[in-house]
Amino acid sequence: GESVGLHLPTLSVQEGDNSIINCAYSNSASDYFIWYKQESGKGPQFIIDIRSNMDKRQGQRVTVLLNKTVKHLSLQIAATQPGDSAVYFCAENWALGFGNEKLTFGTGTRLTIIP
Amino acid sequence: NAGVTQTPKFRVLKTGQSMTLLCAQDMNHEYMYWYRQDPGMGLRLIHYSVGEGTTAKGEVPDGYNVSRLKKQNFLLGLESAAPSQTSVYFCASTPIAGGAGGYTFGSGTRLTVV
């Protein structure tokens, strides 16, 4: 069935190092993927997105890679900072028709940056 | 620039009580969503709206009702609260379906049903 899952529930990274958060999805019809960051007590915050016709997209210190062959998504954060500590969610979006969309979230990975 | 505002931020209800959660957005977005977030789980879609006057069921709609009488407001109602509805509720909006930039989320309402 459809699912969006994460390989690792927790990840600890030394400050200044790069981090990679992985996500697997099973719905090949998904056409749009989003990474969110959620800090404690706050709502999810958009980080970066990628459409299914792309395999890589870069932002400021973040890169998202999409491998449609194995249905895998990853978020790379370069030169991590203490403020990067949060829970990161991947989400896949697919059209249901008639303007309806469905955004399915993974369970999240908690990233901890070690000073 | 308020974005998405949710009220209240916290609430404790007794089993069987009713309440309404309010979501307001000032970005003129067409699409609005209500999610719940439980420990160890991702966000699950309760109900959504693709425009003023429209609503549709999401993944976990039972026990909830919604209304979108005005474009900027999306209300989530619990008619008879149950302990299983203890959760953090998030509202989100987006200008177009699948639009670039993702969804804008509110800061959440933490609801406890005792």
Describe this structure in a few short sentences.
The complex is a heterodimer of chains A (115) and B (114). Chain A has 115 residues and is mainly beta. Chain A contains no helices and 11 strands.
How does this model look, in words?
The complex is a heterodimer of chains A (115) and B (114). Chain A is mostly beta strands and 115 residues long. In chain A, 0% of the residues lie in helices and 58% in strands. Chain A has no helices and 11 strands. In chain A, the strands form 2 sheets. In chain A, strands 2, 4, 5, 9, 10 and 11 form a 6-stranded mixed β-sheet that branches. In chain A, strands 1-3-8-7-6 form a 5-stranded antiparallel β-sheet, with no helix packed on it. In chain A, strand 4 and strand 5 form a beta hairpin. The termini of chain A are far apart. In chain B, strand 7 and strand 8 form a beta hairpin. The radius of gyration of chain B is 13 Å and the shape is globular. In chain B, strands 2, 4, 5, 6, 9, 10 and 11 form a 7-stranded mixed β-sheet that branches. In chain B, strands 1-3-8-7 form a 4-stranded antiparallel β-sheet, with no helix packed on it. Chain B is mostly beta strands and 114 residues long. Chains A and B meet through strand 4, strand 5, strand 9 and strand 10 of A and strand 4, strand 5 and strand 10 of B.
Task: Give me the strand/helix succession of chain A.
Answer: EEEEEEEEEEE
Average predicted local confidence, pLDDT of chain A: 87
Q: Profile the largest sheet of chain B.
A: 7 strands, mixed
Number of strands of chain A: 11
Percentage of residues assigned to helices of chain B: under 10%
Largest sheet of chain A: 6 strands, mixed
Overall average residue pLDDT of chain B: 92
Low-confidence stretches of chain B: none
Distance between the termini of chain B: 36 Å
Structural class category of chain A: mainly beta
Q: Residue ranges of chain A: pLDDT <50 for 5 or more in a row? A: none
The radius of gyration over CA of chain A amounts to: 14 Å
What would you call the quaternary organization? heterodimer
Distance between the termini of chain A: 40 Å
Classify the secondary structure makeup of chain B into a structural class.
Answer: mainly beta
Overall 3D shape of chain B:
globular
What is the tally of helical segments of chain A? Answer: 0
Helix/strand order of chain B, N-terminal first? EEEEEEEEEEE
Radius of gyration of chain B: 13 Å
Assign a percent range to the helix content of chain A.
under 10%
